[in-house]
Design brief:
single chain; 6-stranded mixed β-sheet; two-stranded antiparallel sheet
């Protein structure tokens, strides 16, 4: 009788270990999928997260008319660049409301939120990539929801003006002490 109880106890213990192993396998599988999705993104791309609040809403990638652009846009983070050779404001349209990741590669010298209608829609700079920025003047001005989770630094080697870059970006919280701002001349009120 004691053996039977031990047998049942051992069986219950065995079933518990099997359940734990299956749970661990599911967790590892989900973790692998997460890393695979993130591995698809190229380290050279400028990656941002935006929020739409209604169906069929546009995200307009605001640019500065002072510079020459020739860039590609992946609107749905699937590594397929739906728009190529964009020379003006880019537009991504989303069928449903929610958060959307946009990848940009190519010649994209400046983003220019500048209190535009996009200021509340940009949520995060996830990666700066290797974009050779030429200006950050008013880049994220008014972007009150902006966080910067990027672990890399922007290439500011050709940037002389970062004035009001984060003016009104009240949620911005990144430590920028590692950024190379040696060429920057104008840092006027970069954050309010």
């Amino acid at each position: 009788m004691f053996t039977k109880i031990n047998g049942m106890s051992n069986l219950a213990s065995f079933e518990g270990r099997v359940h734990q192993k299956n749970r661990l396998k599911r967790y590892l599988f989900l973790l692998m999928l997460f890393f695979m999705q993130n591995a698809l993104a190229d380290a050279t791309w400028f990656i941002t997260k935006w929020r739409t609040t209604t169906a069929n809403e546009n995200i307009i990638i605001p640019i500065s008319s002072s510079y020459t652009y020739n860039y590609d846009i992946d609107c749905d983070n699937d590594v397929t660049f739906e728009q190529t050779g964009v020379t003006g404001n880019g537009t991504c349209t989303y069928a449903s409301a929610g958060e959307h990741i946009i990848n940009i590669k190519g010649d994209f010298p400046a983003i220019y939120i500048n209190n535009s209608s996009m200021k509340d829609k940009i949520l995060d700079v996830m990666q700066w990539g290797n974009i050779a920025w030429q200006s950050m003047k008013r880049a994220f001005a008014g972007a009150s929801n902006l966080q910067v989770s990027a672990t890399d630094s922007p290439n500011l080697s050709s940037v002389t003006d970062i004035s009001n870059m984060f003016s009104g970006a009240s949620s911005f919280n990144q430590d920028i002490s590692s950024w190379d701002v040696s060429k920057v001349i104008n840092m006027e009120i970069t954050r309010l």
